[in-house]
Amino acid sequence: MRHIISILIENESGALSRVAGLFSARGYNIETLTVAPTEDTSLSRMTIVTSGSDDVIEQITKQLNKLVDVVKVVDLSEAPHVERELMLVKVRAAGKDREEMKRMSDIFRGRIIDVTETTYVIELTGNSAKLDSFIEGLDKDLILETVRTGVSGIGRGDRILKI
Amino acid sequence: MAVNMLLTGAEIVIRCLQEEKVEHVFGYPGGSVLYIYDELFKQDKVKHVLVRHEQAAVHAADAYSRSSDRIGVALVTSGPGVTNAVTGIATAYMDSVPMVIISGQVPTHYIGQDAFQECDTVGITRPCVKHNFLVKDVRELASTIKKAFYLARTGRPGPVLVDIPKNITNEKCEFDYPETVTIRSYNPVVKGHSGQIKKALKLLQEAKRPMIYTGGGVILSNAADKLTTLIRMLGFPTTQTLMGLGGFPATDRQCLGMLGMHGTYEANMAMQQCDVLLAIGARFDDRVIGNPDHFGEVKRKIIHIDIDPSSISKRVKVDVPIVGHVPEVLGELIALLEESTVKVDSKALSAWWSQIEEWRGKDCLRFKQDELIMPQFVVQKLYEVTDGDAFVTSDVGQHQMFAAQFYKFDKPRRWINSGGLGTMGVGLPYAMGVRFANPEATVACITGEASIQMCIQELSTCKQFRLPIKIINLNNRYLGMVRQWQEMFHGNRYAESYVDALPDFVKLAESYGHVGMRIERPEDVEPALRKAFTTYKDDLVFMDFITDQTANVFPMVAAGKGLSEMILAEDL
């Protein structure tokens, strides 16, 4: 099962490698990992998308909690939450494809943020499945480059991850 | 001393060690730690023990902690000093031993430039320490060292490393050793959940076939007294893991001995067939319960007390988890038991005990002492000659298992060995660490001719510090445990397990100024041991026992098999 683990961690050098090292040392998988400082710059917030049985996920959260730099761990996917990922796609946009690309971008509520005579860069935000479908919907030959941020997530309503 | 006196980083390191009441530091100097050594030289509160290889420094510091409940400290230089130390650090980490390692590092402005004797210490040691630090500012040095000691000894203990670049040890700042330390991201649980403890008590009182299984956590948390009280109050059978030996007196009838791969028949059978299992400071590892699926075939209720939540329900699902400091939880359990009017099912319990006595009747550790010296016989005699009161260290292999099976530990912190990592070579440096922590103690190192050679250079350290360690070398000219597996599972093909070109251990010992003995006949075993522990009481004695090469360790639960699927000596 897919899980989104949110971590508040001391914003110190090496903290990321402790988390990444834990996952590789214990054979847990990481689908995506994002990290950036929070409004309190002494803390970073990390979001990890992983998958595993309930037992594995239980171990992951326990092992993460055991890391001295980790302040809090929450399995976001346990309760209502929203998740978003941002993707930038550079596509060929010349001739008849130019209009088609614009239309696709509109359908997926993307924004064209860079334009040249032959290319567009489309910015798209959504859950991972939406970004996947956008890529699916495009003509493969027209995709020049893609980059995704990985998932960020937050609990709905009163679910707050803060110290 | 003037209030605002500035101290160098090196002075601060030594002052911190003094504040922590550290009496001994095990180490080896080198370029990056020269300022620290200079400060060590200028004082005499902290004594330095010069080893002959950094691995031994860390093992000795590790055994210092294991045998005394004080914190062992190791000091090594950058680069190879650290990489040599890694085996020692990993060994301590696997057995949750508190320890502080101070390592030198190249100056901060050299870091990342592949400087001479530079390595990524924090990166290399990260997976085998509880935590580590790179000190980048001399003003953070004292608080970092304070944190290191605090982290090492609290919660689930473990080694903590502080990496100090050379320039930091020569920069100055005010010294202020914090009295307390708080780390917002680190708050280990102490008290167990009362509701859970009540539930546990109910289960225990309703048990028909109870069993108490305890591990190294009992030793590390100094809970042996409380454990003994509890077990005697309940009247239940108990078994100890390799790391837990001495947590409950081995000579007590309620003790079924060690369990696991080479555990006793009665301990393993009782583990498998109990209906309520109380696990304390133990982690159900593969050498202990064998195949977890087979273990799970018998339905039983499991109560698990441990300081580390990640040890609970890791390999075996637990019904009543209790996270807390073992002595705290046991104290609460004992208090509840004292108040309780509920009687245990004594009829069921006595039936359970008769079943256990039947298993015990198999006498699974029986062996025959013929013409050749049996290793078990040597350990038995050692036990008699030392009145069961020695500190015993061991290396890793058959001799380790024989020591665990035949030396009956009645007290905690007497049995010092590498359980988790299984590090050959620890025996001699462990004995050194034990002796420094317990200056009057009788210390025996049970080893084999292969293991001892992995840290043999420490005979020199023993000479320098006049450490009267008794080395019991069970010499079968084989990597005994490897040979046993090859005999049992690899068609008698003894690939590279024969230990060829052995030195003359007697002469080797003598060349370091120690006493050497070779013992080849069973009738000489006891007299030789007596002589070593009386005539040569104050000497290091290297006793080379030439033992039966075919001796194997039984009972045995083969890897991947169930606990009750033991191979007994009599089956072969």
Outline:
Chain A is α+β, with helices and mostly antiparallel strands and 163 residues long. Chain A contains four helices and nine strands, in the order βαββαββαββαββ. Chain A folds into two domains: 2-78, 2-Layer Sandwich (Alpha-Beta Plaits), CATH 3.30.70.260; 82-152, ACT-like. Chain A, domain 2 (Alpha-Beta Plaits, 2-Layer Sandwich), CATH 3.30.70.
Notes on the protein architecture:
The complex is a heterodimer of chains A (163) and B (572). With 163 residues, chain A is of the alpha+beta class. Helix content of chain A is 28%, strand content 40%. Chain A contains four helices and nine strands; from the N terminus they run βαββαββαββαββ. The longest helix of chain A has 13 residues, at 54-66. With 572 residues, chain B is of the alpha/beta class. Helices cover 37% and strands 16% of the residues of chain B. The interface between A and B is medium-sized, with 20 and 18 residues.
The fraction of residues assigned to DSSP E strands of chain A is 35-45%
Biggest interface pair, counts: A-B, 20 and 18 residues
Helix content of chain A: 25-40%
Overall SS class of chain B: alpha/beta
Major sheet description of chain B: 6 strands, parallel
Number of strands of chain B: 20
Q: Report the CATH topology name of the largest domain in chain A.
A: Alpha-Beta Plaits
Give a quick set of tags describing it.
heterodimer; A: about 160 residues; alpha+beta; Alpha-Beta Plaits; 4 helices; about 30% helix; B: alpha/beta; 6-stranded parallel sheet; 22 helices; 20 strands
